[in-house]
Amino acid sequence: MIRAALYARKSTEDPQADSVLRQVAHGREAAARLQAVVVEEFVCVDDGVSGAEFTNRPGLLRLLAGARRRAFDLVVVSEPSRLGRDRLRTELVMQDLREAGVGIFAYLSNEEVRLDTPEHRFALAARAFSDELEREKARQRTRDALLAKARRGFVTGGVVFGYRNVPVFSGVDSSGNPIRSHVSLEIDPEQAEVVRAIFRMRADGYGLRKIARALNGDPFCTAESTRYFGGQRIASPRKGSGSWAPGGVQAMLKSARYLGQITWGRFKNTDRAGRTRLRTRQAPAAVVKVDAPQLRIIDDALWRAARLMDRCADNEADRRSGRAQAGTPPAPASLLSGLSVCGLCGGPIAIAGSHKRDRCYGCSYRRNRGATVCENTLYESVRIVDRRVVEEIQAAILVPEVRRVIFERATEIVQQRILGAQQEVDSLHSRLSRVRREIDNLVRAVEDGNAPAALLERLRERERERAAVEVDLARLSSLTAVPELDLRRIERLVTKFVEPLGEMLRSDLVAARAALRKLIANRVVFTPTATENGDRTYLVEAKLTLERVIPAPAVNSGSVPDGI
Prior knowledge:
The chain has helices at 19-33, 58-68, 87-99, 118-151, 189-203, 208-215, 222-229, 246-253, 300-321, 364-369, 382-397, 400-447, 453-479, 487-498, 501-507, 509-519; strands spanning 2-10, 36-47, 74-77, 103-106, 111-112, 163-172, 178-187, 261-264, 267-272, 275-281, 288-291, 340-342, 349-352, 360-363, 380-381, 524-530, 536-541. The protein has 564 residues and is an alpha/beta fold. It folds into four domains: 2-138, Resolvase, N-terminal catalytic domain (Rossmann fold, 3-Layer(aba) Sandwich), CATH 3.40.50.1390; 187-236 and 243-260 and 296-321, no CATH class; 333-398 and 499-564, no CATH class; 421-479. Helix 6 (208-215) packs across helix 8. The longest helix is centred in the last third of the chain and has 48 residues, at 400-447. Residues 324-328 and 552-564 have low confidence and may be disordered.
């Protein structure tokens, strides 16, 4: 019985919202015609992902992982371009599937995607080149259209706070539906007043954090909220937490659009290393600047006053941190900053306090955005929390009971790896036998004389394939003969990694943070709680893992059980 996986992808440019659903439905029909059983675990979908993206594609990565485990025999797609539109990387994906013994079937052309001969590979490469070329042309057409809109002052992106996007129509189509020509900007009077109030508050000397908290209606900023925003909590222009952040306020204070100047093209999306939409800064000559006086919200005097406060704040920050020279990386302030989140709101845990002895952990959302965003008011000493966390990690991992669990998990994973390698060895032996038969047939044909060049090339291709298979067999055969794991070796390895954490915390914070990143499976959660005597403290929780501690030759993955 043939086991089939389905793969569907809708690109970022595809306007059809149900494209992936349709691909999956038609893929199931194609699998039924092939008398194949669909493996539901490997109905893999990447919705709204570019064909040039090969790094952040969960569906494709899951498909390739399943192929390596021989979880299915066939991948059904609508067409090869669903696997990718980058010629070189798409060929590598198909080669990975082929070497795993998995076939590829395209239901639109009702044929198997073959890579057996140079002719097959050339035809596939030509088709992939055409797909890649069309994608690049579509990108150029899109950018040219946006450039034309930008030069005329039309909307080229999303919504900007302080303005409304107004669609402009030019006639109707044959069905009587209006045809949208473009989208123009107009000032939103209510939001424009908020923008002016933000600039006035900054010009009056208030910091970004204070402005954000006043916008969020923080009860501790009632006077400022009343004076500048009429005592109202202002709706955030962004989704996410639904609140104003200092960074968002700063971006508004630097936006020349509020002066009536539209700027477009400072950044361009590029593809690199299998990733798409990587922003690269463009040369100043390529940036489009358009004067739009009808969109001015802020006058020059208010703009200059606000920008003066920004420059003063930047200079003061450099003076305090001692980093007046650009490019000097900041030293880490604690063991857990940047790795932790608040258990109440999910916001980041940050450091408060300017002196090392006074540094405390606290919720960044509460501090920067106010009480309306998070109720967590607890600040606890960095020194106390860091020491407690290290002691808990050492106690959790170095006890004999946990060591035994670690060994059992490691043994189980290695056995699974050996089993998978043995299955792949069996598949490679079958493939090697087939290649050898083909070579024998080709040799006999050559010995008959007058062998055409294509036949000789095919023989050389089969010889190269045989050599590659033999190399893979040699590598995998060594994996299937891995000796029994040494419990004491794993214990020594884990002990050597965990025991120095306390000393690293005192002498080398950078090394301690690097070690902790390997041990923590996800984020550390800080939840304020009360002790038996009524004091407030943080309950610090994290799931620990050893998959990045135990090297790959010994074990691929494994984790400390939940709750440790």
